[in-house]
Design goal:
This protein has five helices and nine strands, in the order αααβββββααββββ. With about 220 residues, it is an alpha+beta fold. Strands 1, 2, 3, 4, 5, 6, 7, 8 and 9 form a nine-stranded antiparallel beta sheet that branches. The protein binds a DNA duplex (13 and 13 nucleotides) through strand 3, strand 4, strand 5 and helix 5.
DNA sequence: AAAACGATCTACT
DNA sequence: GTAGATCGTTTTG
């Protein structure tokens, strides 16, 4: 996809994020994530995997025990980034729901579609299917680090999300438990595309219609 | 000041 | 499947 065509896609607005976090996580599948790495260099692709972290009764949420310096972005307005470090990597979340309500969606994997050569340089030579498969790899491929924590994703600059030209049909969406969490691991809050080679971790899941938790 | 903890990843069996 | 690397952040003393 050309840079001109990418920039023509409508930027997701504040209202998209100001809704229940599970709904946002599910609807993020198929949306574009863009990173302007350098003037004229757009990195990104379409989201194929995302996890919701609830503001209430979710002990896996970084904000479960209240506000700290690290998680402050989660308490801000919706539509901003929450970027944190884990081990030697970073993870990108989008903040949802009203200001003061610390819910967010972890972006776990992308289908790489723009700036692939630059992303391969940032990741080190690796197959296309491993370029952004996993939240840490995704951030490495897009050059995302803690400096982008708190970034306003509705500006359409530097880091933003955009609607795709064609939507994902509901029957391609599967739901399952989140990956890597040590508590509240049973909650079906991970949304991903069926039969997608760019999805990370476990590929098995239930159809959206079969999981009551997935229907806000 | 020290200890403990991962929303991860890679390598290996 | 499991083990271990590795380090910023949080918690504890």
């Amino acid at each position: 996809m050309s840079e001109v065509a990418c920039r023509a896609l409508p930027v997701l607005s504040r209202g998209f994020y100001d809704r229940p976090v599970q709904l946002v996580a599910r609807e993020l599948l198929g949306k574009w994530l863009f990173r302007e790495w350098a003037p004229g260099v757009l990195l990104g692709g379409r989201i194929v995997e995302a996890e919701a972290y609830l503001a209430e009764n979710d002990s896996a949420n970084h904000a479960f025990r209240g506000r700290t310096r690290r998680n402050a972005s989660m308490f801000g307005p919706p539509g901003h980034a929450y970027v944190y470090a884990i081990h030697t990597r970073y993870c990108l979340n989008v903040v949802t729901e009203a200001e003061g309500v610390p819910s967010a969606v972890l972006i776990r994997a992308l289908e790489p579609l723009s700036g692939v050569e630059t992303m391969q340089q940032l990741r080190g030579a690796c197959p296309l299917r491993e370029l952004a498969r996993g939240p840490g790899k995704l951030c490495q491929a897009l050059g995302i680090d803690r400096r982008l924590d708190g970034w306003d994703l509705t500006l359409g600059q530097t880091l933003w999300l955009a609607d795709s030209a064609d939507a994902i049909s509901a029957d391609r969406i599967l739901v399952g438990p989140r990956i890597g969490v040590t508590s509240a691991k049973e909650l079906p809050l991970r949304f991903f595309l069926a039969n997608c080679p760019f999805v990370s971790g476990h590929r098995r899941g239930l159809p959206l219609s079969a999981s009551p938790h997935s229907r806000p």
